[in-house]
């Protein structure tokens, strides 16, 4: 009997960008990488695109693009970041989908709900928007309409399935314990037409099922193998690729075949005897959770595409095409793959956590959910009221906005959207308000990314990011004439008590950690001045220099009469003196057609001024009598201060590179061949600074050298 194998990876990172700068600031917990996206890219996403297979001698015998042979979904918020920062890896994903479509007639890639929200807890409008944006992003990335869509945390109920089916989604994938009962489809094997209760141990996972919906639509559902998926994720099954293969092959061959199927007679259910073993885990399992896990996966995929043991690789869509459902299914509702209590993990203290702190509670989850729900209700009401005069059809515009998000920075896409959806005559500040309303809704949805509730503490990075996106949405709400909903959010968060006494409540975290993240004029100018100084790029007196983030640009012009009192080697001001620096700063923001200019006074750090005390004072350039706003480095949020630190270190590294290269050339010329039994350089720690400049031969005819420790010569057996 034929057996098919589908290994699925769920690749997802929440939106991590600072919503004012549209750039990820440092995340200390990801060190030594600057942020978690970068770290997991290096550990999982990139290695899976170029997975090594070793030969018998332990040398690399093959490089495999795992995306060509595995089913996968990648969250739009991750793909957007990869498009900017890891285009080569994203290209491997896209190539993998295209290659698999040419091979099997259906591509490996599945879509994923846009912001990874828990769909059964979302409003009908938010479910529809999340799905529409996901489809738009998938079509922009992969050049085709999605057949399947991954539900965040596999969280499902009937309204969620109705939303997917209405969007043209043909199938999704769930955990086996989410099935409640099965029955034969009408007109097929009527002897089994009655509903039969099932559980994880009794469900036949080898074929897809059809969920018939109240609307008359339907959607097909695959169920993965629970025990093997858990073994991959948590039980070290990836420690050996051959053991991994044997577990998969044995399980695939053991899948049951109903009586009569595959025998060419009419005795039982239709089918060709083919059965599918599906294994689903987070894609980050391969490499990030388990080092070299991508190599174990590559070994398994090589066995699968060779058809070893009668097991062949496929994907869900291709298998469904060959084996359409002949059984119906009823689901536990609502349910998910990571909470035994339905979807309570994302709204209550249900007991599901990562197990890191057994004495902690998660009673904070309820107030966080309630506060964000209340905020979103206010945002939706404001969008409908304000949008009525700005859009031809506010809901249609909101649903179509995903096409703009999928082509971030593409001016023609924005122009086409404006022509199709802005009301006639809308331009200038009214057009700015329309774009701000759409950005408000996007930030509001981003605050519901599921990881905010997944772990066990409200002061973690994930809930703080959720509050940050909510704050951005609230600021855009008031900027477009809407109500100030921040006190309402703080009122709810006051009931969200941290497990850490020093953190207080969610309201304290909001005030102490989140509010300083606001992208004010003073904050943007201070950060821009520091960034320019760090890379030795402050302008000459009377000249202009620019620092740009994806979401903001600041043009800095220094006054000629008040230049800094010290200069760098090129005669440019370096901002290290004690004298204040004055000038103007022009701010350009994507959501504002017209920029704004402020006057500033900057007190840069100097011999007698600490970096944290460095301060900027700003006021509108056109209103000299307006109140001034002052901000110090110490007032910036932690992640912004870390960004300044990294900019300072990288700038100094670049500035010192010529000196290190010259010193390396001189030092290498004095290095003689190593003596017998020598395995390190004298004072080898002094070579560390020169390491990047030494190379293998320094490029100038000097002798090659390995200035760092080398392996000791192998000694003879003393016997």
UniProtKB/TrEMBL annotation:
Belongs to the glycosyl hydrolase 57 family. The keyword Iron does not apply. The keyword Signal does not apply. Residues 105-249 form the Glycoside hydrolase family 57 N-terminal domain. Keywords: Carbohydrate metabolism. It comes from Nitratidesulfovibrio liaohensis. Gene3D superfamilies: Glycoside hydrolase 38, N terminal domain. This is DUF3536 domain-containing protein. Residues 687-719 are annotated as: Disordered. InterPro entries: DUF3536 (IPR021923), GH57_Enzymes (IPR052046), Glyco_hydro/deAcase_b/a-brl (IPR011330), Glyco_hydro_38_N_sf (IPR027291), Glyco_hydro_57_N (IPR004300). Residues 707-719 have a biased composition (Basic residues).
